[in-house]
Design a protein that fits this description.
A 4-stranded mixed beta sheet has the order 1-2-3-4, with no helix packed on it. The chain is built from 1 helix and 4 strands, in the order αββββ. About 15% of the residues lie in helices and about 15% in strands. The longest helix has 13 residues. The two termini are about 20 Å apart. It has a domain of about 55 residues. By secondary structure, the protein is an alpha+beta fold.
């Protein structure tokens, strides 16, 4: 399954009359925010909460351990998902 980020339609306004984002634009903003690069120090595993597909950069600059991708949605254990698990070093 492929999840592709599609920009909002240009044939309708992005904002409602009151100035709030329309449903399509609001959904796009949430998707972009969820996929934005996360920058921190050290490994994100068990520390940084994120959705599957997120990208994390370790700013400590240790060669070979800089970029991580959130591969798993959660740890798969228990009734409450742990969104800090599932980071994979790229």
């Amino acid at each position: 399954m492929v999840t592709r980020l599609v920009q909002p339609s240009s044939d309708r306004p992005l904002l409602k009359d009151g100035g709030s984002p329309n449903v399509q634009f609001n959904s796009w903003l949430k998707t972009v925010s969820d996929r934005a690069l996360i920058i921190g120090t050290g490994s994100p595993e068990s520390v940084v909460e994120a959705n599957q597909g997120a990208i994390y950069m370790d700013d400590s600059g240790i060669a070979g351990a800089i970029l991580y991708i959130k591969r798993d949605a959660d740890d798969g254990l228990g009734p409450v998902p742990d969104k800090t698990k599932g980071w994979v070093l790229v």
